[in-house]
Amino acid sequence: MAEFVRRSTGIQSSRLRLYPEQFLRIPLLRPPLQEQTAILKAISEATAELERASRIAQREITLVRAYRTRLVSDVVTGKLDVREAANASRPSPPRSSLSKRTDAMPDL
Fold it and tell me: Higher confidence at residue 85 or residue 29?
């Protein structure tokens, strides 16, 4: 952080400006190439299962979207009649306990 402040210009510390040519001259510490390769390999191994799960989930999302598109198309074009299924899935209204028992109200 001190290197950024040292290379910045401005009249106040809250108004410092770091120009690209100065920014690019700031030395960057990095590990040797062999260590970078080892780090990359460790990260790849640690995230391999997540990458696999992500690919599977994306594939399933694609398949469900295609199924939905096909289903809508079939309903719109009349290849699939959903009226019967809609009626079957609609629950019947609950019966009142009074309608079940005719002797609940005495005759007057």
Answer: 29
Retrieve residue 42's tokens: 């460790």
Mean of pLDDT over the chain: 83
**Amino acid symbol at 73:** S
Contact 3, 26 (CB under 8 A): yes
C-alpha span between 55 and 58 (Å, rounded): 5
Q: pTM value? A: 0.50
Calculate mean pLDDT across residues 1-21: 77
DSSP-assigned letters across all residues of 30-95: ---HHHHHHHHHHHHHHHHHHHHHHHHHHHHHHHHHHHHHHHHHHHHHTSS--HHHHHHHSPPPPP
Q: What torsion, rounded to 10 degrees, do the Cα atoms 74, 78, 81, 83 define? A: 110
Closest to 4 (Cα-Cα) out of 29, 31, 30, 17: 17
9 forms bridges with which residues in the sheet?
17
